[in-house]
């Protein structure tokens, strides 16, 4: 007995050792098998992180696990991911591990986790999944190794978890996305005929020619599928599917042929409750249907039958209808009544271009407001033809009281429309407005729009739009927000192109306003968490505002405003033209009264990039210096010394640079130049430390008594500095030349030279100056250099009068020497003249 137990123990130990060692012994065999299959069959880059074998998890089955398997396609889809799966698990009999690389392995179960299947068809009709090797020159396979399939499937179980499927067909302009896809299938498909039970869940989005028909809708399927492998026929039995909460029962079959696929499927709603209609709407928007009361019916009845191949689709006849229906949510005060819907999706030829949508009727009522629409959409896969008519009234405030719409913005007002239109999309895209036939009128009254990004509610008392073939006119718009009022009229060139395609809204408008506050139209910036904390700690102020030029506008705006207020500036009688395009506003011949003078400007402002920018030419004519210094930071930075001036200034500025989010110039980015002229001004030196300190250093000049007139100077801006070119002016007989630069942080470096008359240095020269007569004293000057550095709050004055006194003394000495020389020469001339004019003999004179 002990011997038998010992033998059994040894056998068990050997089995355990075998179970542990076999995965390592046969791991390379499995890798070779996968690589063999790949290298033999596909023209693509296939890779995997690792392959492992496990005998314990489902013994006596063996599990082969492939980690991070990917298939990257070659030309013409080079670099695209066709397939990626995080983990692929295959289960098979242990004996399959002992086969060599050329023998097929029978797979019993497949499990796939986090997979992506990405199917593409390009505009030339080429498929990215066409990766099988094509070698017409290879000989007919004869050996078992050449003929053998790498894998055969005796599937009992299929499981797919948390995966995605994308189908993007650029020929038919079809996009289908299945996300969060899970599939569980059970059944034996090793037989020629079998039945498989399938359960599938996903979210589906579907678009056709740029129009989204399904957006993140829930999709589920419970089905029993009869499989005939010989005929490649799949028959649906006892099947129910759900789109969101809408149930659909269906039956029929799909049969695969060599060159096409045959489809014959019928589907319909299992009941006609109007609740089915609400169930189609994504649950995010429809909310919970519990407690909702409905009347009337809603049915979907469809048939898809025919052949699918490269040139043909099945015929379609899908009818959706509802009659005299209503619904009311239990926690909302209003209901939607008299709902009538009759629409069809039809194709009778099997040609994709012949598919059309017929909206025969759509009506509903909220309170006393009735809305109706009808029309059809033809040639929907190419140049869609639209023929629509809309007639009705909507009270926007009632929408959220009858339907659980979660709007961040507050909407109210009345829309009335009676419009009929007939157009094709190509005419819209090509802006061929003569082919767009639209007639009717739309009005908006008592409209209010409140959103967090705007500081005030936008109110439109009345807006009226008239539609005529080729022309849409804005006959009236009365708008107010905050302290601002706007009246506008104009023409809209492409309203339908803006609504139905991605075109910008083009138009020509005339705008008038009594008072326009720019801050009323600024949006609130969203601060980051860091920004918020910093602001709360430092100032406790709300987030800053920012102004964004609308990207959807391509328009001309002629404007006239009695008052425009921006920051602390008040512009009077402003008028001009603004052209808006590509998030850029171009200003043309804009004029206004400002600082008791006139401002004229041309240029542009762009908010297209993350950092707004501008380029501008400004002409300021006879503006009040003191007022402009108080009102414009730019002028304060260009000429800080102007704080001490009162009078009039004219200047031409040409500059460009970056703007802050509220359209204030970033001074250190400015580049450009200016020509400024002081027409007349007086000085109050006590207003600035620079002039006050300079006035103290120049005891021979009283700066407060200066009258500055017709002084011109040229400036340039670059690298955060204002460079002042040399300019001259005269103060009470003193010629002054100044030049230098200062920064926008008020650091300065200026050189001033005074051509100083000698009389102002009398005390320093003492008796030396008395040697000059009045004429010499009035004509003699000396250069007095003054160096100015530091900053405007703490200036440093370097006045070298000693050098000036020394220079002047040298001039006086030179002048005296010249005078002495002149006297000697003059006296010599007199002596010589006396000699030449005398009768006395020379000898006597010599004696």
Offer a concise description of the structure:
The protein has 847 residues and is of the alpha+beta class. The protein contains 16 helices and 39 strands.
Helix share, percent = 10-25%
Gross morphology is elongated
Look at the structure and give the mean pLDDT. Answer: 77
Task: Give the structural class.
Answer: alpha+beta
Low-confidence stretches: 1-25, 136-148, 525-544, 840-847
Please state the CA-atom Rg, rounded to the nearest Å.
Answer: 45 Å
Number of strands: 39
Rounded to the nearest angstrom, the distance between the terminal CA atoms is 175 Å
The total of helices stands at 16
Residue fraction in strands: over 45%
Sheet having the most strands:
37 strands, mixed
Account of the 3D structure:
There is one protein chain. Helix content is 19%, strand content 52%. The protein has 847 residues and is of the alpha+beta class. The strands form two sheets. It has a 37-stranded mixed beta sheet that branches. Strands 25-26 form a two-stranded antiparallel sheet. Mean pLDDT is 77; it is low at 1-25, 136-148, 525-544 and 840-847.
């Amino acid at each position: 007995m002990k011997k038998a137990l010992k033998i059994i123990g040894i056998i068990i130990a050997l089995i355990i050792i075998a179970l542990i060692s076999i995965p390592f012994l046969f791991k390379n065999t499995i890798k070779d098998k996968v690589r063999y299959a790949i290298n033999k069959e596909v023209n693509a880059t296939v890779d995997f992180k690792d392959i492992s074998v496990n005998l314990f998890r489902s013994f006596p089955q063996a599990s082969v696990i492939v980690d991070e398997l990917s298939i990257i396609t070659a030309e013409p889809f080079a670099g695209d991911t066709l397939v990626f799966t995080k983990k692929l698990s295959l289960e098979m009999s242990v004996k399959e591990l002992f086969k060599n690389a050329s023998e097929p392995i029978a797979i019993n179960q497949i499990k796939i986790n986090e997979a992506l299947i990405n199917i593409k068809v390009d505009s030339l009709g080429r498929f990215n999944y066409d990766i099988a090797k094509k070698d017409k020159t290879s000989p007919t396979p004869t050996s078992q190794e050449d003929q053998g399939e790498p894998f055969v499937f005796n599937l009992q179980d299929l499981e797919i978890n948390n995966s995605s499927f994308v189908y993007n067909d650029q020929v038919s302009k079809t996009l289908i996305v299945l996300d969060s896809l899970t599939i569980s299938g059970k059944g034996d498909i090793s037989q020629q005929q079998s039945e498989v039970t399938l359960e599938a869940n996903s979210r589906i989005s579907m678009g056709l020619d740029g129009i989204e028909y399904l957006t993140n809708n829930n999709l589920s399927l419970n089905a029993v599928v009869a499989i005939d492998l010989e005929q490649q026929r799949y028959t649906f039995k006892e099947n129910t599917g759900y789109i969101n909460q809408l149930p659909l029962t269906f039956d029929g079959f799909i049969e695969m042929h060599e060159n096409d696929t045959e489809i014959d499927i019928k589907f319909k709603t299992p009941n006609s409750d109007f609740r089915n209609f609400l169930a189609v709407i994504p649950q995010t928007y429809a909310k919970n249907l519990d407690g909702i009361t409905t009347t009337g019916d809603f049915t979907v009845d469809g048939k898809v039958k025919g052949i699918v191949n490269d040139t043909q689709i099945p015929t379609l006849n899908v009818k959706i209808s509802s009659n005299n229906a209503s619904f009311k949510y239990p926690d909302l005060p209003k209901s939607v009544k008299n709902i009538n819907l009759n629409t069809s999706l039809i194709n009778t030829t099997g040609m994709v271009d012949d598919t059309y949508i017929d909206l025969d009727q759509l009506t509903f009522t909220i309170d006393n407001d009735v809305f109706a629409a009808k029309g059809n959409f033809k040639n929907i896969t190419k140049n869609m033809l639209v023929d629509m008519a809309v007639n009705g009234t909507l009270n926007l405030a009632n929408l959220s009281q009858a339907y659980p719409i979660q709007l961040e913005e507050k909407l109210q007002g009345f829309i009335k429309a009676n419009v009929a239109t007939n157009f094709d999309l190509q005419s819209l895209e090509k802006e061929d407005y003569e082919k767009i036939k639209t007639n009717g009128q739309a009005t908006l009254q008592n409209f209010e729009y409140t959103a967090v990004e705007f500081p005030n509610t936008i109110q439109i008392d009345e807006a009226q739009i008239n539609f005529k073939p080729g022309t849409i006119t804005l006959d009236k718009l009365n708008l107010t927000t905050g302290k601002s009022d706007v009246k506008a009229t104009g023409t809209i060139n492409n309203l339908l192109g803006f609504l139905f395609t991605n075109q910008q809204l083009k138009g020509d408008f005339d705008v008038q306003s009594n008072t326009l506050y720019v801050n009323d139209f600024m949006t609130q910036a969203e601060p980051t968490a860091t920004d918020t904390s910093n602001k709360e700690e430092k100032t406790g102020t709300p987030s800053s505002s920012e102004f964004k030029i609308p990207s959807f506008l391509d328009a001309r705006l002629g404007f006239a405003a009695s008052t425009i207020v921006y920051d602390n500036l008040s512009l009077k009688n402003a008028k001009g033209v603004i052209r808006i395009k590509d998030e850029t506003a171009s200003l043309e011949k804009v004029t206004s009264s400002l600082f008791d003078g006139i401002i004229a400007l041309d240029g542009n402002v762009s908010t297209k990039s993350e950092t707004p920018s501008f380029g501008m030419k400004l002409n300021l004519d006879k503006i009040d210096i003191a007022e402009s210094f108080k009102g414009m930071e730019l002028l304060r930075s260009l000429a800080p010394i102007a704080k001490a001036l009162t009078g009039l200034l004219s200047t031409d500025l040409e500059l460009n640079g970056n703007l802050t989010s509220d359209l204030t110039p970033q001074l250190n980015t400015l580049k450009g130049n200016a020509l400024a002229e002081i027409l007349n001004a007086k000085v109050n030196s006590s207003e600035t430390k620079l002039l006050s300190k300079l006035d103290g250093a120049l005891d021979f000049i009283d700066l407060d008594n200066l009258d500055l007139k017709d002084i011109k100077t040229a400036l340039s801006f670059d690298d955060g500095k204002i460079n002042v070119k040399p300019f001259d002016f005269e103060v009470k007989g003193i010629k002054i030349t100044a030049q230098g630069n200062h920064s926008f942080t008020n650091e300065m470096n200026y050189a001033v030279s005074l051509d100083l008359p000698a009389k102002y240095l009398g005390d320093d020269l003492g008796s030396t100056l008395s040697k000059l007569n009045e004429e010499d004293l009035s004509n003699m000057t000396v250069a007095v250099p003054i160096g100015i550095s530091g900053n405007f709050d703490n200036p440093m004055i370097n006045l070298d009068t000693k050098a000036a006194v020394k220079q002047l003394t040298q001039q006086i000495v030179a002048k005296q020497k010249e005078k002495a020389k002149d006297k000697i020469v003059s006296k010599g001339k007199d002596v010589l003249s006396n000699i030449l004019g005398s009768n006395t003999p020379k000898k006597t004179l010599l004696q």
